[in-house]
Amino acid sequence: MARTTTPRYTVPGISVEDGGKLIAALGMRLHALNDLHLTLKHVHWNVVGPHFIAVHEMLDPQVDRVRAMADDVAERISALGGVPQGTPGTLVTERTWDDYSIGRADAIAHLGALDLVYTGVIEAYRTAIDEVGKLDPATEDILIEQVRDLDQFQWFVRAHLESAQGTLSTGGKATEREAAEAARES
């Protein structure tokens, strides 16, 4: 049975058609946030090396905030008349990205890979902000607030990857493995 994002009703001032567009955009953000939460916990559990404790402890507040973001997005989907899809099967079926590819590794390697993960999430957020901003400023506001936090989390990660001259060790890398290796070598 094909799932639809078109609601039977939505919030006042938004058409059912536009509500469906908002729900679809938010559904992908929900998948990204649920995936990011799990990825951050995976790194938290699998980070090793001299920077272990710094990275281990840096990630827990990010995990907590990302979980809260997912809840806000899911509740907005519900308010718009949609059904938030938070099951692992739906996430895996509908996502447009691959699973995080780094297992047990040193902190710097994980941070290099996380830099690319954050880049992907943030770029998709900015696209979604552009899309939903044409339809609903309330939904746009939720996403803008969240992207500010995601930008900050990436900054925390990148602070470990930046040289004193301002060069980012992961600059120009296309895969998590390439970014992890570049970070490890710098």
Architecture overview:
By secondary structure, the chain is an all-alpha fold. Helices cover 67% and strands 2% of the residues. It has one domain: Ferritin. It has helices spanning 16-46, 52-79, 88-94, 107-133, 137-158, 176-185, and strands at 47-48, 105-106. The protein has a two-stranded parallel ribbon with strand order 1-2. The N and C termini lie far apart (50 Å).
What labels would you give this structure?
186 residues; mainly alpha; Ferritin; two-stranded parallel sheet; elongated
Main sheet strand line-up? 1-2
* CATH second-level architecture: Up-down Bundle
> How many helical elements?
6
Q: Major sheet: size, sense and barrel closure?
A: 2 strands, parallel
The CATH topology is Ferritin
What is the general shape? elongated
Beta-strand share of residues: under 5%
Keywords: DNA-binding
InterPro entries: DPS_DNA-bd, DPS_DNA-bd_CS, Ferritin-like, Ferritin-like_SF, Ferritin_DPS_dom
Organism: Streptomyces spectabilis
Protein name: DNA starvation/stationary phase protection protein
